[in-house]
Amino acid sequence: MDNSEGYAIELRRIVKRFPGVVANDGIDLKVRRGEIHCLLGENGAGKTTLMRVLYGLYRPDEGEIILNGQPVQMTSPRAALNHHVGMVHQHFRLVPTLSVEENIVLGLDEGTGPFMNFRKTREKISAIANEYGLSVDLQTKVWQLTVGQQQRVEILKALYRKVNILIMDEPTSVLTPQEVDQLFTTLRTLVDDGLTIIFITHKLDEVIKVSDRVTVLRKGKVVETLLTTETDKPTLARLMVGREVVFRLEKSPLEQREKLLEVNDLHVLNDRGLPALRGVSFDLFGGEILGVAGVSGNGQYELAELLTGLRKSTKGRVFLAKKEVTNCSAREMNNLNVAHIPAERIRMGIVPALSIRENLILKKYRYFPFSQREFLNNKEIEENAHRAMSGYQIAAPNCETPAKLLSGGNIQKVILARELSENPCLIVAVHPTYGLDIGATEQVRQVILAQRERGAATLLISEDLDEIMTLSDRILVLFNGEVMGILDAESADIEEIGLMMAGTRHKGEEL
Amino acid sequence: MKRRVGFKVERIPIVSGRVVFFVSLLAILAAFVVAGIFFQIYGVSPIRAYQLILRGSLGSRFGLAETVRRAIPLLLCGVGLAIAFRALFWNIGAEGQLLMGAVAAAGVALFSGLPGPLLLPAMFIGGFIGGAAWGLIPAILKVMLGLNDVITTLMMNYIALYFVEWLIHGPWKGPTARGFAYTDTFPRSAWLPTIYNTRIHWPTLVLGLFLAVVMYVMVTRTRSGFEIRVIGENPDAARFAGISQLKTTLLVMLISGGFAGLAGVGEVAGIHQRLLGPTNISMGYGYTAIIVAWLARRNPLAVIITSLLFGAIMTGGDVIKVSLGLPFQLINVFNGLILFFLIGSEILLRYRISFLLRS
Are B241 and A362 inside 8 Å of each other by CB? Predict the structure, then answer.
């Protein structure tokens, strides 16, 4: 006999299929009452799908859900809430124009008849907020809150609905390090109070830091469930990816240095018409990766947009391979073989409704062999897609699959395949591995290094300092639209880079 | 335990063509059911009304011919609108573009003095230019100044409407029209041939069918079509890829306005042989074509089918008037209801709703 005592949740043989993929392939999961249980897996491993099944957003094709020993039917999120299961989604479900308290009681029957009784609800909410240290002003409109505060509202919302099982879907992806620490403290308090928490993540550090037990998913199946104290990062990484992970990347030394990009005293305005870059100058050589470090909003995005023709400068000049390209259009830069890996890959990098095949020619559809005169050549377009899909290991049923159905990693691979296929001379890569899992991150970095090997000049803009340190040959630090200094990556000191990101100029730099 | 019926809603990632077809059919059926209530209010049995409408629009040679001749302007306008809507340009102005096409054709017919065989081709070219020019104005206003396309295209309709009124009451009022507000009759060489004993001006019909096929090929197989789809699905990605918003918007409005203009040529040269009151020229084809294009899910080939459907509904309006003595305007109620249910049914394409018993 199976003993259900002590388990808050038991999922038995859960199967959920989508057209062309089995997202959950017979998953068994047992979560103990009062623990933080991490669900670890790469993008597309089926973590979120599984939790949506538990929360009643998806109906499983097969399998059972058992809560506290009782089989239940999760037909909707409302049913889940009736069973005291709550979920904090990766993208919050809040109404920005309503106040915090309005969001919290939204959809509940509080007060008498059509009237709300905010005095009563306010007391209840404050009591919960104080108990768990989730301080937030109840009358503030949600759009005025920081992301971290919004997340607190989501947690309060769930607690107000008396949940005793709380699902957190990648809750740290939007938070600053301080906010992450605060969140972890809150989660601990909740668990000490008897709540059960399922924590979805693909970050190994977080698993080690926050969880009691961890279940690793891979390709829709459970690989293993472990006690966190009895495991370590390399083991988890191996289980998650299915092979050994190289944490270090091999880089060959720089060879011939031919100046490919020269930027001279560049001034650019941002979307609000305020100066974003004020007199930025640097050189970039072939076969070199120049990392651009800086806190978000110090001019990095404007620099990327300028170099790819999406933004115009007000002053200054840009030379590409000794040719002036100041204020060229996006199409002209594209024709000069400048590749752009954009920051927001779904908003800019792909057309979600179009197929992989069509997304792969987004910048090349005008040229032979993909089109001749006015007509597209579907045969070549299809062959190109087959080449790219095998070359970059894009996982999809076929090349007609709409890009929106791909996981984040596979979308990035589509973009890389498209941007790098023509052997670009300059690559502008913005957050190329942001939000990707270990396997995809490693692959993306390898691809960027291979381009460096080939002799391409790469401008790597990233907020992930580790990434910049790992990949770059030199590191340029931007602060408030100005260059604080350019360091050699070999000898660079992370402390010093941190200071420069906060506005200290590099020692020995002439001013 | 009490059992009750509940339902659950699930997102559908990809929709098959079959589902789209059945959901659209369902929307039309729902519109017919609700419209039946109006017949009931007028004291006419809806079943009998629909029998008469069906027989009147599809069941006789005359009815069928009327259905087809009404489908012609709907087809031309609908194909153009399908292209504009693909590029997210919300052209509500096909009515005005149609009228300006009619004006241009009338101008050529009455005043160009071209010899016989050249006259009709010149009228079609003029009509295309007239409609396209009217469509390009809001396009330029949108791209250059960011003016809302829905408002500008809609307002341009009224300008066109009163322009036609002014012409037929003023400078173009025909000396032979015996005081009526319309122009002189066009010379014989400006009349479009019709199929024997019907009002089907077949050259316009052939043109419409041809353009529907051409537009389908353009959208699916050409560079411009690719640009239209990319802009329509993700304008940011289009900018990223260096696709010109200006060029594409102008192109789709050249097509959309131009095709509506051609529809106007067909009406004046094929049916009336003169320029007359704007509501006599068009009967709201430009507005109905919005529903035609939308029901066809912006697919130019599917517009052929949907324009015939709405041609039949408009012919049904004659039946309502003649056989039942009810106002023709009931047809507008019909059209409104179809659009209402069509847009309402969009949710069925994105979500699966299933009913279940629960305790």
Answer: yes
Compute CA distances A219 → A55, A200, B85, B285, whole Å: 21, 15, 40, 54
Smallest Cβ distance to B222: which of A73, A351, A375?
Answer: A375
**A507 domain-assigned:** yes
B146 Cβ partners below 8 Å, 6+ apart?
none
For residue B237, give the chain A residue with the closest CA.
Answer: A348
Q: Angle at the Cα of A396 (from A393 to A397), degrees rounded to 5?
A: 130
DSSP-assigned beta bridge partners for residue A226 = A214
Domain boundary residue, one of A371, A400, A422? A422
Domain ranges, ordered by start, for chain B: 74-306
Q: Which of B234, B298, B352, B354 to mutate to test the interface with A (most CBs of A within 10 A)?
A: B234
- Rounded Cα distance between B327 and B340, Å, is 21
Burial (CB count within 10 angstroms: exposed 0-12, middle 13-18, buried 19+), residue A259 = middle
The count of structural domains within chain A is 4
Per DSSP, which regions of A76-164 are E strands?
Answer: 85-88
Q: Which segments within chain B are labelled E, that is strand?
A: 4-11, 351-358
Whole-angstrom distance, CA of residue A203 vs CA of residue A190: 21
What residues contact A243, with CB distance under 8 A and at least 6 apart? none
Of A332, A348, A375, the CB nearest to B236: A348
**Interface test mutation site (partner B, options A75, A83, A351, A370, max chain B beta carbons within 10 A):** A351
Same domain assignment for residues A189 and A288: no
Residue A502 burial class via C-beta count within 10 angstroms: exposed 0-12, middle 13-18, buried 19 and up = exposed
Of B8, B233, B236, the CB nearest to A354: B233
Closest CA to B229 of B255, B258, B252, B257: B252
Q: Is the pTM of this model over 0.90?
A: no
In a domain, A247, yes or no: no
Could you give the ipTM of this predicted complex? 0.81
Whether A343 is in a domain gets the answer: no
Structural domain harbouring A267: 258-337+424-511
Q: CA nearest B80: which of B154, B156, B132, B158?
A: B132
Q: Any idea what the CATH number is for the domain that residue A303 is in?
A: 3.40.50.300
The pair of three-digit structure tokens given for residue B194, joined into one six-digit string: 């019709």
| Chain A neighbors of B239, CB-CB under 8 A | 310, 330, 348
End residue of a domain, out of A380, A400, A422: A422
Token digits of residue B90: 């919300």
**Region class of A170: left (phi > 0), else alpha (psi between -120 and 50), else beta:** left
Q: Which pLDDT tens digit goes with each residue over B113-152? A: 888 889 999 999 999 999 999 999 999 999 889 999 999 9
More confident residue, A104 or A145: A104
Query: Which residues of chain B are within 8 Å of residue A341 when distances are taken between CB atoms?
Result: none
Question: Of A76, A349, A376, which has the smallest distance from its Cβ to B237's Cβ?
Answer: A349
A372 CB neighbours in chain B (<8 A) are none
* Positive or negative torsion for Cα A190, A196, A200, A201: positive
Per DSSP, chain A holds a count of helices (H) and strands (E) of 16, 22
Cβ contacts (< 8 Å) between A374 and chain B: which residues?
222-224
Q: Is B72 on the interface with A (CB under 8 A)?
A: no
- Under the banding of pLDDT at 50, 70 and 90, the label for residue B176 is confident
Among residues A136, A188, A176, the alpha carbon closest in space to that of A157 is found at A136
Does B356 contact A310 at a Cβ distance shorter than 8 Å? no
According to the model, what pLDDT value does residue A280 have? 94
| Same-domain status, A502 and A435 | yes
Is residue A259 over pLDDT 80? yes
Residue type, B20: V
Residues A113 and A192 occupy one common structural domain: no
